[in-house]
Design a protein that fits this description.
This is Gfo/Idh/MocA family oxidoreductase. Belongs to the Gfo/Idh/MocA family. It comes from Massilia soli. Keywords: Oxidoreductase. The chain is an alpha/beta fold and about 350 residues long. It is built from 9 helices and 14 strands. It has an 8-stranded mixed beta sheet with strand order 8-9-10-7-11-12-13-14, with helices on one face. Strands 3-2-1-4-5-6 form a 6-stranded parallel beta sheet, sandwiched between helices. Strand 1, helix 1 and strand 2 form a beta-alpha-beta unit.
């Protein structure tokens, strides 16, 4: 692998633009292709990111098959992730796939099996896993300063003033609070406390049939417990606290963009640790993917594929419990099945 990592982006929406912006802050990364279902959209995206017209494609397949691309970032709507990842892998490309990785575990298993059979790098773009704040939290936990971590509490919510056709509320686009927001506290709770042993969930469902608020409590195999919630109806503090026998660590303001963390101990002492991040924060996942490619790894040790599969299974269980079903589940839940 050359020192330069050549990136292709599939999709031209908000998240794809955020990732393309982050590549400017990623050492050794260069954007070499973008693909859209419409050529005018690809050209507009390319113009905004200084791509020549020849690097802008009116199809996703052209990016997957481009000789100028080492790794494809998938930033399309949720229900397209599995199809697009399979297409990129069949094109011989490494893949960084935006969360949620797929719509369900069944799809995720198909994508992972293909990557492993082709010996190609694959990683879920859970960008919060790579931020300085979460790594500092992990480091402090490892020192034993707060004792054995026993509980995580995390919320993530904002008020979505959108109509029913917007992707956040549209079931055909994988809408709902859980897949868009709840996946963040779920993933970080598992990162801090270990694999999920069991989960119990409740939700408020909206008029379009997707969840607008969901809360879930998880027991972890290591004995800890996490309490998580997500909402597209309430602007929550979006904080995360991990507590142990000797104190707690709080990721301040919005945990997914925490500029600092606070450590408070049972002896009354406390301190604040600055955790600034570069740009919009997405560069860190690009750095990790690039590092893995440079080192010849097929998956990231910080977001292993088996953990991605396990978390997709937890999401399936939560959706079973709250009655949230998507078209992609038809093979798992046949028409008329009682969930």
């Amino acid at each position: 692998m050359a020192d330069e990592i050549r990136w292709g982006i599939i999709g031209t929406g908000k998240i794809a633009r955020a990732f393309a912006t982050a590549l400017k802050d990623t050492p050794g990364a260069v954007l070499t292709a973008v693909g859209s279902r419409r050529m005018d959209s690809a050209l507009a995206f390319g113009a905004d990111f200084a791509l020549p017209d020849r690097a802008c494609h009116g199809s996703y397949e052209d990016v997957a098959n481009s000789a100028d691309v080492d790794i494809v970032y998938i930033g399309t709507p949720h229900p397209m992730h599995a199809e697009n990842a399979i297409m990129a892998l069949n094109g011989g490309k490494a893949v960084l796939c935006e969360k949620p990785f797929t719509m369900n575990r069944r799809e995720a298993e198909q994508v992972v099996a293909l990557a492993r059979s082709k010996k190609l790098f694959l990683m879920e773009a859970m960008w919060t896993r790579y931020l300085p704040a979460i790594e500092e939290v992990k480091r402090i936990i490892a020192t034993g300063e707060i004792g054995k971590p026993r509980q995580v509490s995390a919320d993530f919510g904002f008020t979505a003033a959108v109509d029913n056709e917007h992707r956040l509320l549209n079931p055909e686009l994988g809408g709902g609070a859980l897949l868009d927001l709840g996946i963040y506290p779920l993933s970080i709770a598992a990162y801090l406390l270990g694999p999920v042993a069991s989960v119990q969930a409740q939700a408020e469902m909206g008029a379009t049939g997707v969840d607008v608020q969901t809360g879930f409590v998880m027991k972890h195999e290591g004995g800890g417990m996490s309490v998580c919630s997500c909402s597209i109806q309430a602007r929550t503090p979006a904080e995360l606290t991990v507590s142990g026998e000797l104190g707690h660590i709080r990721m301040n303001t919005m945990f997914h963009r925490a500029p600092s963390i606070s450590v408070s101990l049972a002896d009354g002492t406390s301190r604040t640790v600055p955790t600034p991040f570069t740009g919009n924060g997405y560069a860190y996942e690009a750095v990790e993917a690039g590092r893995c490619l440079q080192e010849g790894l097929l998956e990231s040790p910080r977001m292993p594929l088996d953990e991605t599969l396990a978390l997709m299974g937890v999401l399936d269980t939560i959706r079973d419990q709250i009655g949230l079903r998507y078209a992609a589940d038809a093979a798992r839940w046949p028409e008329g099945a009682d969930i």
